[in-house]
Design a protein that fits this description.
With about 210 residues, the chain is an alpha/beta fold. It contains 7 helices and 7 strands, in the order H-H-H-E-H-E-H-E-E-H-E-H-E-E. The protein has one domain: 3-Layer(aba) Sandwich (Rossmann fold). It has a 7-stranded mixed sheet, sandwiched between helices. InterPro entries: rRNA_ssu_MeTfrase_G, SAM-dependent_MTases_sf.
């Protein structure tokens, strides 16, 4: 497996980087058996793991609380966000048993998740109000911002927010969201150059 680029290596403390590589290696091995992601093996670290850990390193300086990773798949982005952020609690939600199985496998790796701040849930998010309320929802590749926010109505606290990993073509989504929910405010987080065309859009409500 190729070594991550120097600019990515320098973005993380050595101890965290070592753990991220462990997750990368486990994901590559499981992906060859169960096809958990279409991203090629050599690109998994740069495209999936590193950007997720970067956002986690932003979360660690905030007292967020409960973070729901909606449509987590093989733990993207929540699994490695939680490695970079032991302060907040992560609930990784997906309806695919094999993908949740991979997450649970990683949680059992010795000395990897010492903070015990991750929960994997095999579940499908349904419309309606939940008794449990989340402080933040983070997601990647689960549909439009508007459809996701509507689905999560009644499940997020009043001052909660959404973070979306998106590609470069998002203007139509932003316009659709603003037209349907005028109180939604979209902010693009400033990300490192190695993110390429990947963007992180935060949606808050006034």
């Amino acid at each position: 497996m190729k070594k991550p680029p120097a600019e990515i290596i320098q973005a993380f403390p050595p101890e965290l980087l070592e753990k991220l590589i462990v997750v990368r290696d486990r994901l590559v091995a499981w992906n060859r058996k169960f096809a958990l992601t279409s991203v090629p093996d050599d690109e998994i670290f740069d495209r999936l793991i590193a950007p997720s850990a970067w956002l986690g390193s932003r979360y660690v300086i905030e007292e967020i609380g409960a973070v729901a990773d909606f449509g987590s798949g093989p733990g993207v982005p929540g699994l490695t966000m939680a490695l970079a952020d032991p302060q907040n609690r992560y609930i990784l939600i997906d309806s695919n048993q094999k993908k949740i199985g991979f997450i649970k496998h990683c949680l059992t790796v010795k000395d990897l998740y010492q903070a015990n701040n991750v929960e994997a849930r095999l579940s499908r998010v349904e419309s309606g109000v939940y008794k449990e309320k989340f402080d933040r929802v983070v997601t990647r590749g689960t549909g439009s911002m508007l459809s996701t926010i509507k689905l999560w109505e009644g499940k997020v606290k009043a001052k909660g927010a959404f973070d979306f990993f998106k590609g470069s073509e998002t203007e139509a989504e932003i316009e659709e969201l603003g037209a349907e929910i005028p109180t939604a405010h979209v902010e693009e987080l400033k990300t490192p150059g190695w993110f390429g065309r990947l963007r992180v859009l935060r949606v808050c409500f006034t």
